[in-house]
């Protein structure tokens, strides 16, 4: 089921991404020569007006081929002849559609949820040392930890664990006002459970909240925004050396993780919802990653449009689009190389 779900998921994500480019291009009068799902020889195609619609045989990728997308077209309806702001919207529309489908999948996941844990302190255990007049109090809503907003309850422990140590900067809402607790000492205590296992706990209990329909949609939105933040934190860890190539994964690794998620679920309904959450997480990840200012990605092309427009406005000279094409071509080669390395790593990991 997980393999089938992965195929369907990636197909949907590719389709809606290219659909974003297609719809905005049509909206702004840019000529679309072909709208294709997948790559390779066509197994189905149909010409409708100026656009060829096709489904191809290799289930990887897809594309929305716009006239003059890489320059060199005299067609007044070509992509390069469109106003700069229209080109920016067309390029960003693919990622926007991926985020939208990810958010809708999150909504579907949380629709059956009746209650959830809020980052609002309900009580303290007797061993807790974080409470008091100068510390945390019952009713406090955790707003920020070490400068990071708390969108959902799980963010609290996530940010604390990422930053480590016992001293943190907190911002809480208390009686309708913000209270700042800088350099606040948060001590964990070893607690033995009834089964004999031990845990390190702060001794805080949080509030359960019954969810209305609007609450479920709001929670799905918070979870989606939180996923965007997780991408940023992951990139920070890569840049600072906290994470490396071994922590990256590609389609092969994702399918393996989906299989693990499905097998760990108690019922088939739980499996579907867990896979749906996984799918929403991937969709939002792709949306953010695609907007990074890296050549060959939409984010790199957006930067290219912004820079060339600014330079042309100052110099009054047209920049040959082939130079930007060379840059994106080199970026594509590097990205494909990285994808190949990550895929090889995932395959080796599976066999091990």
Protein described:
By secondary structure, the chain is α+β, with helices and mostly antiparallel strands. Among the domains are: 2-31 and 67-110 and 281-351, no CATH class; 115-210, PDZ domain (Pdz3 Domain), CATH 2.30.42. Helices cover 50% and strands 23% of the residues. It is built from 8 helices and 10 strands. The protein has helices at residues 2-27, 84-110, 154-163, 213-240, 251-264, 268-290, 298-315, 321-351; strands at 32-48, 51-66, 115-124, 141-145, 148-149, 167-174, 177-185, 189-192, 198-201, 204-210. The strands form 4 sheets. The chain has a 4-stranded antiparallel beta sheet with strand order 5-4-6-7, covered by helices on one side. A two-stranded antiparallel sheet has the order 1-2. Helix 4 crosses helix 6 (268-290). The longest helix is centred in the C-terminal third of the chain and has 31 residues, at 321-351.
SS summary, helix count: 8
Radius of gyration over C-alpha positions, nearest whole angstrom: 24 Å
Distance between the termini: 23 Å
Major beta-sheet overview: 4 strands, antiparallel
**Widest sheet: strand order?**
5-4-6-7
Short description:
With 352 residues, the chain is α+β, with helices and mostly antiparallel strands. Helix content is 50%, strand content 23%.
Descriptive labels:
alpha+beta, 23% strand, 352 residues, Pdz3 Domain, globular, 8 helices, single chain, two-stranded antiparallel ribbon, 4-stranded antiparallel sheet
Strand and helix layout:
Elements: H1 2-27, E1 32-48, E2 51-66, H2 84-110, E3 115-124, E4 141-145, E5 148-149, H3 154-163, E6 167-174, E7 177-185, E8 189-192, E9 198-201, E10 204-210, H4 213-240, H5 251-264, H6 268-290, H7 298-315, H8 321-351
Antiparallel strand pairs: 1-2, 3-10, 4-5, 4-6, 6-7, 8-9
Helix pairs in contact: 1-2, 2-4, 2-6, 2-7, 4-6, 5-6, 5-8
């Amino acid at each position: 089921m997980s393999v089938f779900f992965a195929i369907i998921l990636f197909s949907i994500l590719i389709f809606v991404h290219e659909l974003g480019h297609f719809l905005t291009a049509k909206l702004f009068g840019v000529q679309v020569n072909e709208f294709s799902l997948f790559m390779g020889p066509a197994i189905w195609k149909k010409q409708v007006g100026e656009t060829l619609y096709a489904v191809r045989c290799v289930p990887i990728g897809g594309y929305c081929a716009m006239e003059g997308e890489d320059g060199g077209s005299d067609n007044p309806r070509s992509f390069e002849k469109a106003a700069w702001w229209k080109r920016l919207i067309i390029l960003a529309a693919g990622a926007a559609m991926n985020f939208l489908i990810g958010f809708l999948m999150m909504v579907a996941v949380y629709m059956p949820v009746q209650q959830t844990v809020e980052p609002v302190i309900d009580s303290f255990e007797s061993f807790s040392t974080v409470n008091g007049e100068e510390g945390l109090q019952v009713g406090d809503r955790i707003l920020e930890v070490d400068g990071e907003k708390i969108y959902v309850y799980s963010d609290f422990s996530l940010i604390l664990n990422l930053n480590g140590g016992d001293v943190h900067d907190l911002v809480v809402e208390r009686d309708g006002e913000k209270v700042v607790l800088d350099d606040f000492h948060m001590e964990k205590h070893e607690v033995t459970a009834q089964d004999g296992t031990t845990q390190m706990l702060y001794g805080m209990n949080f509030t359960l909240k019954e969810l209305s329909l609007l609450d479920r949609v709001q929670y799905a939105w918070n979870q989606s925004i939180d996923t965007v933040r997780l991408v940023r934190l992951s990139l920070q860890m890569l840049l600072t050396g906290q994470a490396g190539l071994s922590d990256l994964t590609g389609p092969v690794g994702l399918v393996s993780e989906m299989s693990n998620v499905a097998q760990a679920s108690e019922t088939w309904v739980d499996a579907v919802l867990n896979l749906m959450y996984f799918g929403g997480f991937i969709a939002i990840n792709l949306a953010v990653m695609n907007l990074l200012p890296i050549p060959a990605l939409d984010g790199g092309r957006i930067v290219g449009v912004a820079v060339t427009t600014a330079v042309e406005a100052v110099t009054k000279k047209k920049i040959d689009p082939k130079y930007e094409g060379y840059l994106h071509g080199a970026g594509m080669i590097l990205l494909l190389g990285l994808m190949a390395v990550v895929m090889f790593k995932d395959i080796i990991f599976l066999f091990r």
